[in-house]
Each structure stands twice: as structure tokens, then as C-alpha cells.
Design a protein that fits this description.
- The chain is globular, with a radius of gyration of 15 Å.
- Helix content is about 30%, strand content about 25%.
- A seven-stranded mixed beta sheet has the order 1-2-3-4-5-7-6, with helices on both faces.
- The chain is α+β, with helices and mostly antiparallel strands and about 150 residues long.
- The protein has a single domain, classed as Aminopeptidase (3-Layer(aba) Sandwich).
- It contains five helices and seven strands, in the order βαααβββαβαββ.
- Bound molecules: coenzyme A (COA).
- Coenzyme A (COA) binds next to helix 2, strand 4, helix 4 and helix 5.
- The site of coenzyme A (COA) has 22 residues, from helix 2, strand 4, helix 4 and helix 5.
Amino acid sequence: MNSHKIRLRLAKQEDGPEIWRWRNDPVSRQFSFNSAPIPLEEHLNWWAASLANPKRRTYILESEHGEGLGSLRKDETEAGEIELSWMIAPEHRGKGYGTTLLRLGIEGEKGRCIALIKPENIASCRMVEKVGFVKREMGVYEWIGKETE
Ligand SMILES: CC(C)(COP(=O)(O)OP(=O)(O)OC[C@H]1O[C@@H](n2cnc3c(N)ncnc32)[C@H](O)[C@@H]1OP(=O)(O)O)[C@@H](O)C(=O)NCCC(=O)NCCS
């Protein structure tokens, strides 16, 4: 895979419909903490609020051709940590993009990063382990700034 030209860019309003498609994929719903399907209108309202939220930064993983491959959210928590969440477009899963997205996402990040992951979400558990997160407790991983690979 030619990953060095892949980049993270800030998400925009126009990304809303594409993100809706990714979010409503059955696997995305299964591994989300709220598994019900999301109506488009509800999603677009959420998306606008999400982009306007000063405690949240949302990024799109983009191919060298400008195609959206996945998304990453960084939320500042009450405890002053950065909570990460992500998804890869259904048609692009299993190609290493999730791992690339997470690596790019923590690059240069100074705060402590955490991720809440359902234990049955094997791909996400594997991703965080590869990038150097450690398990804090069941379903909670944290990154303390050191990569293992
Ligand atoms: C989880 C997700 C982001 C993984 O992205 P991806 O690009 O498919 O992951 P990668 O290709 O980088 O694979 C990461 C690791 O998981 C493994 N993996 C990938 N898909 C898997 C699957 N369906 N079952 C088991 N392992 C899997 C890969 O083999 C790889 O491990 P390895 O390097 O030891 O071989 C993607 O499947 C997704 O968007 N899922 C739905 C949304 C979601 O779960 N979001 C995260 C909520 S915390």
C-alpha cells in the first residue's frame, strides 16, 4: 500500500452525506455505542453541530486522489484527555487504512489520548495495540506517547 501520500484533512460541511453512508453501515452501527440506524436529517443536524463544537476536531482520511477513506474525531474530555473515535469507509476496510488513520491522528498530539472500544471490535483493538496504546481497563485504551512498531 502506498500510504505516504495519504493525509488527514479537517472535515467540512460537504462531507456530511458521505459520513452518513459510513455511519449507517451495519458494522459501524454494531460497534458504535448507540446502534440504531440514523435518519439523514438527524445525521446532518448532528454533523453541523459536531463541526461547530469547539471541543471537537473532525478529520477525513483522504487518498492521494482526494477520495475519502475514513474519519477520525478528537474530543476534549472533562478530564483534559483527548478521546479518539474513528471509522473507515465500508469498501475500504481491511486494507490497513484504519491503522494509518490512527498513526496520523496521534502524530504530534501532546495530550493523553484515549479510545473506548467494545472488546468484540477486534480490528479496532488490534489497531490501537499496533500504534502503541495500552489497555487501561476493559474497553478503555490510552496512548502515552510511545509507538511499539
Ligand atoms: C475498525 C475499523 C476502523 C478498522 O479499519 P481497517 O482499515 O479495516 O483496519 P486495518 O486494515 O488497519 O486492520 C487493523 C487490524 O485489524 C485486523 N482486522 C481488520 N478487519 C478485521 C476484522 N473484520 N476482523 C478481525 N480483524 C480484523 C487487521 O488484520 C489488522 O491486524 P493485523 O495488522 O494484525 O493484521 C473499520 O473496520 C471500521 O470502520 N469499522 C466500523 C466502525 C468502527 O468499528 N469504529 C471504531 C469504533 S471504536
